Amino acid sequence: MSDAAPPTAAARVSAAEVLLLVSVFFIAACGLVYELAAGALASYLLGDSVLQFSTIIGVYLFAMGLGSWLSRFVERQLVGVFLQVELLVGVIGGLMPAALFAVHSLLPPGAATPFRVLLYALVLLVGTLVGLEIPLVMRILKRHFSARYGLKDLVSQVLTFDYLGALLVALAFPLVLVPHLGLVRTGVVFGLLNVAVAVWALWLFRADVRARGAMGAACALSAGLLLAALLGAERLTTWAEDRFYGEDIVFKQSSAYQRIVVTEGAGGTRLFLNGNLQFHSRDEYRYHEALVQPAMAAHGAPKRVLVLGGGDGMAVREVLKYASVEQVTLVELDPLMTTLFRDNAKLAALNGQALSSPKLRVINTDAFGWLEQQTETFDIIIIDFPDPSNFALGKLYTASFYEFVDQRLSAGGYAVVQSTSPLIARRSFWTVVATLESVGLTATPYHAHVPSFGEWGFILASRRPFRLPTQFPPGLRFMSAQTLPTLLDFPPDMARVPSEVNRLSNQVLVQTFEEEWGAVH
């Protein structure tokens, strides 16, 4: 017979306290994941990332406040209500990304209103339930451990665990969770965490729960539903994306920065970043020749070339057509992009194995910070960033950024910027022109028709007037000495309009861009 003494009541209480406070950590983590997942998914499927994140965060916080206010009406069966809330949050919040993906795929193209109604209804519901959690936990702690906690200690303990959980998830969501699990599985995994909190709360306070059997069955049913969703998450994501893209997906992966999808169809290969088309292999040569060749040919014999963005290697391919080039520096934020387009045989063939060239130096970092710290100069700077659809991208179109470009440009050098459509986003295009001119550069705008995109704009910038080149490398399919002059002519519907300079302090370009492109979606 063992001589060990049974655990004291104080020890049991201490263990219960710790477990309940740890549950606060997981509750906060789960709540923030649902908020971030809704914002990321809305940006991915609807675009306008600034608008989507702002409105979703606003609605979610309002709903949490509503839930906190509603908690005052819970007077009996605190533990029972808490368990019900946890299970509802786990199931609804955990399945929310999967449900939104599925509904978006079933709706006809352009039917954004029903999707938005469902999105914000779910955000409002989940936020309200999350808002109920912390007040209920505080009251449970106060009721069961009143001898240990004054109000000051109670609030500080709970909020410490709450904020710690939010911090860790805020870091893990873009760096670990989405890249390795994806949005659907991330939601389901954290839904299971909410159910786990309900299970251990049921065990800790089993004496306070009247219908323990029914509550245990509800926990088992919720866990089973979420486990089934976890097992089917990959199939659901594949089905939804196949419907969304309309072609066979040959590669898909989420990095810390974006969702990369490559499709293959009868017409060729397409690259999508966060659901936005970046190129189609059947006509990408028009875009990349227009982007690179005028500046390179006008210089004549460039030796040092800088490419900002363009991790697919297509712009580098065009640069390497000049024998005078000694070194190309490619600054691309996402290492997955440069690795994919270097190591995947089919994609590397599209860029002519440019990313394996001994002349190439690849730097995976933020272009703004990198350019700010540089001292070397370049004969040609090619700026091939995604369109300014959010503030993170918008800063790369500001006067501050173009001042760095001016400092890094050699005396006789040229910079060129891809600058969205001067037809669809006319004010946005001329805003980039005005911003380049504001730092003292001479801007030469031009445009080209790329069937996959429509009419697309580019801007040459230099300290000297642009002179039309008379010779281009052999083998080009679009650009020529006869073609380029026609690209410099802007018809009345694309002619210059008054535009404000885009600065870090105002980021007017992001708002203008969203207004103009939002009008056609």
TrEMBL record:
It is an enzyme of class 2 (transferase). Its EC number is 2.5.1.16. Keywords: Transferase. This is Polyamine aminopropyltransferase. It comes from Roseateles hydrophilus. The lineage of its organism: Bacteria, Pseudomonadati, Pseudomonadota, Betaproteobacteria, Burkholderiales.
